[in-house]
Amino acid sequence: MGIWDHVIAGVLAVFQSDPVLGVPLTILMVLGGFLLGITVGATPGLAGPMAMAISLPILISIFGFSNDALLPVLGFLIGIMKGATVGGAVPAILFNTPGTPDAYMTTLDGYPLAQKGEARKALRVAHFASASGDTFSDIVLVVCAPFLAIMVESYLDLPEKTALLILSLAFIASVIGGSVGKGIISMGLGLLAAMVATGEDFYPRLTMGQPSLSEGIPIAAAILGVLILGEVFKALEDIYLDDRSAKAQTGVNVQESKVEFLELRKLFPYIGRSAVIGTCIGALPGIGSTLAATLGYTTAKRRYAIKKSASDPEFGEGAPEGIAATEAANSSVSGANLIPVLSLGIPGNAAAVFLILAMDSIGGFNPGPSVFRLDGGIGDGALNPEMVMAFGLFTTMFVANGFNWTIGGIFMRVVGVMARIPKARLLPIVLLLTLTAIYVQETSMVAVWITIFCGFLGYIMRRVGMSPLPFVIAFILGGNLEATARQAFAATGADPFFLFNSPIALVFILLAIGVVIYSLRSTAR
Amino acid sequence: MTTFLKATAAAAILSIASVTSALAEGHGWKPEGPIKMMIAFAAGGGADTHARLIAEDLQAATGWEIVPEQVTGKGGVNALVALKEMPADGTAIAMVVTESIGYNAAAAKGAGISPSDFTGLTTTAGFQMGVVAKAEKGWTSFEDMIAAAKEGELRFGTMSPKLSDLAYLLGEAHGVEFNIVQVRGGKAVMNGVQAGDMDLGFMAGIQGKGVASGDLVNLASALSEPLKQTPDAPTFADLGVSFNADGYFVFVAPAGMDPAAREALTAAIVESTNSGKANGMITKAFGGPVNIQGAELDALFQSDFEAAGALMEAAQ
Predict the structure, then answer these.
(1) How many CB atoms lie within 10 A of CB A465?
(2) A357 contacts in chain B (CB < 8 Å)
(3) CA–CA distance, A500 with A160 (Å, rounded to integer)
(4) Lowest-confidence segment of A13-17, A48-52, A296-300, A333-337 by average pLDDT
(5) How many whole angstroms separate alpha carbon A359 and alpha carbon A34?
(6) Of A59, A170, A466, B86, which residue has the fewest beta carbons closer than 10 angstroms?
(7) Can you give the three-state secondary structure of A263-285, one letter per residue?
(8) Chain A residue with Cα closest to B164
């Protein structure tokens, strides 16, 4: 049986699933997930992975553990993932409150543009860039998944992975925000928070004897606290301190501003570059979409500085190119992200973690190198059921992309109305939604207190001009960094110089040092 | 005559049935509120899934409200520390592994827990703990792997301090020193082995499908008895290691529980591991349910806890 037989069988598995109301069940599930995802993504305070976490147990209890359950359940989760990616730009652009760390860079140009009264334009650009990046990434996934993951993995051993994580942290700390020093402090605080109660010992470290901290700081509490509550606190203070400016901010003017094709064409180079960057980053295990967004944004910034005409706005003052570059980069991670998931079973970001959890729980599909084997079937000439499933999965991704291009666009235009809500009314709602989401997810008041604490931390960071993003990334990667470093140290027979003994790891470390020094010198100038 | 025999048999079956149903209904014990079920494993993994399925079956069979909740970390010690403070009236139970109450409780001195702090209910399934490598390595037996280890350093993936100790002792018994890489959970060992970050590692049942398809090889059984899937692989005792990784998933409650409550809960959990969805999943992943309960379970906890010191000393 050739590869095409598997492709056809996979596509048919989706389109010939049991019809409900005349529509194949799997397609219906993708649509349901997509609508949920886009709503969740567009709601300040909620994010895709959270919706996936809540849906997964419900879906499994409905569909059970049979093999038939796999595609509908995964289809729904993929729908959420895609919907939330495109929807995530909405709160970032309209309210300056990114729901996920990857959407943070979108606020830099999206919010200024919305304040100028061009919220719809910003949303359209975000939708176009996001959908293009996503589609590009899915095509790469389908073409390259089998080869690429195995190749990447064979070059990166544990020391190289440790060095790569150090490089990503160094890059993010020094590139984001105006000051390298503040970036590194922000990253250091994030690493410190990630160290609480983790590690290999049997007693929880750094908890100061508090039993409530013994499971560590909940990831949602830290991230939503710093990113959303920090912004809400700052905005509330702004309103309190300056009534006039609050009135000025009240209601972003939503005018029907058309985005001409010519304007979109100007964005193509930015979207293209970012899509390639996002796809490459997505294919690396464990790095994730935030680095992609950052890299996409900074490369675009450099190009824009050379190419722009004098009348165009600067990056950070509402340049559509900034939104396009960020959204294309963070969306193009989601497809490529499945490369390490399917070929090695290693998740690249939070969304991928839930896909793996679903595959694990339902069974019948074990991500790993065996997925893409032509001889994986039982007996000669039989189809490999896992490869069929993989192509079924790809089909659901393209179906979700179809919804993204069609319904996604309409939805983005509709939610523009939300921008009319005055900030003084909206902020308390965002606050309530965020705290409720945390409580629902963690079911403990301690998590709520931690969120509020992190909110104050985020507020102080904003007040002293420190970017909260390095904190968030360091918090996410901190545990991973420690575990990989520990494992690399053990695997090399306790070699203290494990980061410098292989050429690839050495290059990564030198680049990490280089990027900090380079950024220090360029800010000094 | 045959009619008489049939009638007697029918009567006997009927009476047994009525006695069992009377037992099932007439435990005389009911929880005073919802039962909080703490699960010491990451959400979505094999261990978590089987706990949640049991919760579902349990709720359907008894009508008691079960609220599953994740309390993960420190090899089950976090869940046990939380459980110790809960009321012993049957409204709080936890699913851990026997290793949590044995080795991990002994090793986590600061946590202040020991088997006497808990009431064992029942085990649900045993580990199928094997020493596993990728078939691509070309090793068909344990000796092949040791020969390779003598040529150059091998990386041995483990998922708990106890297993790291065992890996060390296994190497020591054969004159080799493994680079022992401890990761979180059997799934992580499997990923490491599949991706080539580790050469071999401990897997507690997760390897079943890979071994069946020929991608993975069970080189040895880390149990006191042979693996169900690969009965020919030598056990740790055969390989000169006097300790083993025998272990089970187990439900526990706080100490000082009312015997009626203990009995009712135990019976209900045993019932749900032997029927329904939970049974299907346990059979698929762990080779069938194993229900050790009562005094036998208490003795198992105690001996595991006491053996921990000997193992730690041997691995020093």
Answers:
(1) 10
(2) 43-45
(3) 9
(4) A48-52
(5) 19
(6) B86
(7) HHHHHHHHHHHHHHHHHHHHHCC
(8) A490
d(CA B131, CA A469): 42
Q: Are A519 and A180 in contact (CB under 8 A)?
A: yes
Q: The pTM is what?
A: 0.75
Label residue A256 exposed, middle or buried (CB < 10 Å: 0-12, 13-18, 19+).
Answer: exposed
pLDDT band at B19 (very low <50, low <70, confident <90, very high): very low
Instruction: Dihedral sign for Cα B220, B222, B226, B227, please.
Output: negative
Alpha carbon of residue B303 to chain centroid: 16
CA closest to B284 among chain A residues: A363
Residue A49's contacts (CB-CB under 8 Å, 6 or more residues apart) are: A100, A350, A351, A353, A354
Nearest-angstrom CA–CA distance, A147 and B192: 18
Reduce the DSSP state of residue B33 to 3 states and report it: coil
Domains and CATH numbers, chain B: 31-127+247-314 (3.40.190.150), 130-221 (3.40.190.10)
- Average pLDDT across chain A, whole number: 81
Among candidates A345, A360, A487 on the partner chain, residue whose Cβ is nearest the Cβ of B45: A360
Instruction: Provide, rounded to the nearest whole percent, the portion of chain B with pLDDT above 70.
Output: 91
A359: DSSP letter: H
Position A430 pLDDT exceeds 60: yes
Q: ipTM of this complex > 0.90?
A: no
- Domain count within chain A: 1
Listed residue (B269, B270, B259) closest to B89, CA to CA: B259
| Among A146, A148, A141, residue whose Cα is nearest residue A398 | A141
The minimum CA-CA distance between B37 and chain A, rounded to whole Å, is 14
| Residue A58 domain boundaries | 3-252+260-524
Q: Is A479 on the interface with B (CB under 8 A)?
A: no
